[in-house]
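Re: that chain you flagged

S.,

Sorry for the slow reply, it's been a week of failed gels. I finally had a moment to sit down with the sequence you sent. For the record, here it is as I used it:
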Amino acid sequence: MSKADKTRQFIIEKTASLFNCKGYASTSISDITEATGLTKGSIYGNFENKEEVALEVYKHNAALVSKHMMCSFGAQYSTCLDKLRAMVDFYKENWDIVYSTGGCPLMNAATEADDTFPTLRTQVKKSFEEWADKTAEVIREGQLNGEIRQEYDAEEYSYLFIMLIEGGLLLSKTSGEKKYLDLVLNRILIIIDGELTA
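Prediction finished late last night. Pasting the structure tokens below so you have them in one place:
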């Protein structure tokens, strides 16, 4: 990694929580210089503008979520149903980290990804699609091997799970109470064990 690449990565990592907590629009160049200890010249020497920093920070934050999520779907789980349960467990077990770092970066960016920042909106859409595609893939695999009932639409259930999780995260983050997230996570487990299981 070149010195310039290292500096860019340093800026991204140092501001990842800042952007997620304060917001992509509200975070200023002064906030970035304060968080990194670098000058404005150094920031602009490595990024074209604040929007480029914000976009790269979002990609970084989304990649961390994706990495943890992919662990839920890993080979250590012998059944597809266990992989879906592991996705739920990820949010049950990591609420404190999600809460302390500003909430779900996908949801936070989605609320700001309007017509004024179309490149962020495109990236957020891609993140949700990748999550949904991977979840649907697990459901379809479970249908093929007889674990999951055939009559259900894998894509519909994958988006249903995402909507429930993101809604629970939103209410829990806003209220500061984990009970809303627990409510939806428990409901997803009921759906997995009651509806989907063959």
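What I noticed first: Residues 118-144 form the longest helix (27 residues).

Talk soon,
D.
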